[in-house]
Amino acid sequence: MLTTDQVKAVIPQREPFLLIDEALELEPGVRAVCLKRVRDDEYWTVGHFPGNPVMPGVLLIEAMAQTGALCVLSLPENKGRNAFFGGLDACKFRDMVKPGDTLRLEVELSGLRSRGGKGTARVYKAHPDGSLPEGAKPVASCDLTFMFG
User: Fold this and answer.
1) pTM greater than 0.90 (yes/no)
2) Helix (H, G, I), strand (E, B) or coil at 32
3) Residue 37: how many CB atoms within 10 A of its CB?
4) What is the DSSP string of 84-133?
5) Which CATH number is 45's domain given?
6) Structural domain tally of the chain?
7) Is 90 exceeded by the pLDDT of residue 7?
8) Is 127 annotated in the active site?
9) Which of 56, 71, 147, 59 has its CA nearest to residue 107?
10) Domain range for 114
11) 24 sits in which H/E element
12) Cβ-count burial of 115 within 10 angstroms (0-12 exposed, 13-18 middle, 19+ buried)?
């Protein structure tokens, strides 16, 4: 398990744009599972939407991408590099995410090369400890393509 500070030692994002609170599992270059606890004081809650805050889908995508970046940038040969979006495919949003939700972000990488790679990402609403309720289905998912900068 990695703390927020340990995550920050690997990826360059910082508050208010750091969308990972901790990593539950990390197999560098293969798979990562992270948590995001959605707070009621997040910067977007005032305007998206007033009186009914819903986490923007683009932030769910970014949280998935940061989980993938943690996975790939934790490889020793990628230390100090940045991973950038190369493309998104098959994005689906199936449920709303609201303050108070705990998100479990899962990314599995494939096709990793020296210039970039691909991954499949899913977001679930989880229990506060990160475990999934029985029968949990993804609230969002996508296929990510990334390139190193």
Assistant:
1) yes
2) strand
3) 14
4) EEEEEEEEEE-S---TT-EEEEEEEEES--SSEEEEEEEEEEE-TTSPPP
5) 3.10.129.10
6) 1
7) yes
8) no
9) 71
10) 4-148
11) strand 22-27
12) exposed
Q: Which residue has the tokens 């400890």?
A: 129
Length of the chain: 149
**What number of other Cβ atoms are within 10 A of residue 113's Cβ?**
9
Assign 111 a pLDDT band (cuts: 50, 70, 90): confident
3-state secondary structure of 44: helix
Exposure on the CB side of residue 76, measured as CA atoms within 13 A: 0
CA dihedral for 20, 144, 125, 100, sign (positive or negative): positive
Q: How far apart are CA 129 and CA 96, in angstroms?
A: 20
Catalytic residue among 48, 91, 98, 143: 48
Do 53 and 98 touch, CB atoms closer than 8 A? Answer: yes
Q: What mean pLDDT, rounded, does the chain reach?
A: 97
- Looking at residues 109-129, what average pLDDT do you find? 95
Token pair belonging to 129: 């400890």
Predicted pLDDT of residue 16: 95
61 near 122, Cβ under 8 Å? no
